[in-house]
Design brief:
With 251 residues, the chain is α/β, with parallel strands linked by helices. It is globular. The protein has one domain: 3-Layer(aba) Sandwich (Rossmann fold), CATH 3.40.50.720. The chain contains 8 helices and 9 strands. Helices cover 49% and strands 17% of the residues. It has a 7-stranded parallel beta sheet, with helices on both faces. Bound molecules: NADP nicotinamide-adenine-dinucleotide phosphate. NADP nicotinamide-adenine-dinucleotide phosphate binds next to helix 1 and helix 4. The site of NADP nicotinamide-adenine-dinucleotide phosphate has 30 residues, from helix 1 and helix 4.
Length: 251
Amino acid sequence: MSKNVVITGASSGIGEALAEQFAAKGYSLGLAARSVDKLQALAQRLTQQYSIRVEVASLDVNDDASIPAVLNDLVARLGSMDILVANAGVAGSRRSGRDDLSVDKAIFQTNLIGAIATLDAATKIFLAQGFGHLVGMSSFSAFAPIPKNAAYSASKAALTNYMNAMRLELLTSHIDVTVIHPGFINTNLAPKMDKYPFVVTADVAAKQMVRAIESKQANVIVPALPWKIVKGLFQVMPDSLMSSLMKKFVK
Ligand SMILES: NC(=O)c1ccc[n+]([C@@H]2O[C@H](COP(=O)([O-])OP(=O)(O)OC[C@H]3O[C@@H](n4cnc5c(N)ncnc54)[C@H](OP(=O)(O)O)[C@@H]3O)[C@@H](O)[C@H]2O)c1
């Protein structure tokens, strides 16, 4: 029997590419986001191309009280849920002490509170059915914070930490927890993503992510190279060297 995966933020970028990769492997899909028209177009294409089942749902993760009902409805339509990917997220630039704090609040609401509420609702379903796999879309910035993106970087670091605590808490259950840390992926998350260093397409990234999810890895960096090496360098680099390197990027 085919497995069922529910993906939030499936209307574009990494979420859409994940939907395609899972579809190619015969999974049934539950796709959620605010842009239902985009989800419906994607569902129609994937259903025709891969002869799979696709259900779509309107979901705004900022309305965290609505999340359990949306997930329960998708599970009822699909029959069950094997994997939940909490992928919905936003980016946003803000200069500390200069710009409005509302920018940072909105980022934390979507990337952290929205993701936690999604994972929590899925955990409730998984505990009741006795199995499941939680996947969260963190970021490489959880390890290497990006200037003018303090809230984004911190929201992802918090999500990584939160999910790694969840894994420990769920050790005695049959619920797996995977945290994905993408490097730069060419999507519409931020302007000019195609100009970022070591950028890869969403399709390349999604292929690696699906492999990591299927092998139930705990913490994943995508693409692995060069980012695992960069992480190692950042861990041993003295703060003074990091500061002089970053100075030329921060005006
Ligand atoms: N691209 C990168 O380089 C990169 C690197 C590290 C991590 N990530 C993470 O990967 C995830 C996907 O981002 P992406 O790069 O694929 O960007 P994207 O193309 O902008 O996709 C973001 C997705 O999140 C959804 N979303 C945003 N706010 C939402 C809300 N309030 N409720 C429900 N859905 C919402 C959007 O759908 P609607 O607008 O239709 O709701 C869209 O489907 C994010 O969590 C991002 O932080 C990306």
